[in-house]
Amino acid sequence: MAEPHFEAQLTRLFSEPPAFPDAELFATQISASLDRGWALRRLLIGGAGIAAGVIAAAQLITTRFSAELQALSLDGTRGLNADISVALDKFNQVVATPASVEALWLAAGLALLALGFAVTRAMEEF
Amino acid sequence: MSMDRPPTGHDVELAAFAAAGDRRAYGELVRRHGSAVRGLLRRMGADSATADDMAQDAFLAGFEQVSDYRGEGAFGGWIKRIAARCYLRKVKREARMILTDEAQDGDDPAALNEPRTATRIDLDEALKALSKGERLCVSLCYGGDWSHAEVAEALNIPIGTVKSHVKRGLDKLRARLAPPIESARREAHG
Hints:
The complex is a heterodimer. Chain A is an all-alpha fold. Chain A is built from 3 helices and no strands. Chain A has helices at about 5-15, 25-95, 100-125. The N and C termini of chain A lie far apart (about 145 Å). Chain B is mostly helical. Chain B folds into 2 domains: about 1-95, Orthogonal Bundle (Rna Polymerase Sigma Factor, Chain: A), CATH 1.10.1740.10; about 95-190, Arc Repressor Mutant, subunit A. Helix content of chain B is about 70%, strand content about 0%. Chain B has helices spanning about 10-20, 25-45, 50-65, 75-95, 110-115, 125, 130-145, 150-155, 160-190. In chain B, helix 1 (about 10-20) packs across helix 2. Chain B is elongated and about 45 Å long. The termini of chain B are far apart. Classes of the chains: A mainly alpha, B mainly alpha. The interface between A and B is medium-sized, with 26 and 33 residues.
């Protein structure tokens, strides 16, 4: 037999795959492996996405909360200082303003009234 | 591709679907070429369990690389090449093969003495008569369509050694296969 003919026969024999009774099972196993791999990949991507989202949200909230707290604190400090300044100004105005006669009589009347209440209470107690 | 219909079409078309992530299309390719890949690995000398493991690895690797397949050659040849490389990596890693130029004692004496049926051409049985190196080289050249140079490069052996393996392997196969082929041809013609 000529060599090329034999080689052609051999190539043809090699191209005929042996019959495997479990060929369908083999294909099914590979499909299942692909599905498992895909599911795992999706799980990992999803997990990584969720983790990244949580971290990003935490960072965002923390940064914003901190900024807002800082702003609030600054506002509060400014407001408190302003209130104190206003109160001091009013107090100074009151102290600095010369008292009128009506005010003095009113003050004296209130003082007498308070003294009367105090004497009455003292008499009830003792 | 519709999910309720089984994937059909040419291998190139299915490979394009698979490259787009269609696992059902790739499953059909596995169905079509699974036996060829498993058969080639067995013919290269892998035992059945190893051959199936390697074939599975090759198909899974093939799915990852299927976008590289442009349809220049047959899909079967492309996936068989991946499978053969998977097996060769394993062989080289385990240093199990002795690929010297000498004929080896690894020939299967049982296979050499097995009675042959008159007309049945059983390549797988005939391959058992070859040494591991001969079997690997012959299977890659005739089953995987590799050139001698490609086999030499993959096995990291001189090309002359590959040619020697192939020649000796062919001589042994011819001795076991040629008479049945001849008689089969005579029967067919006559």
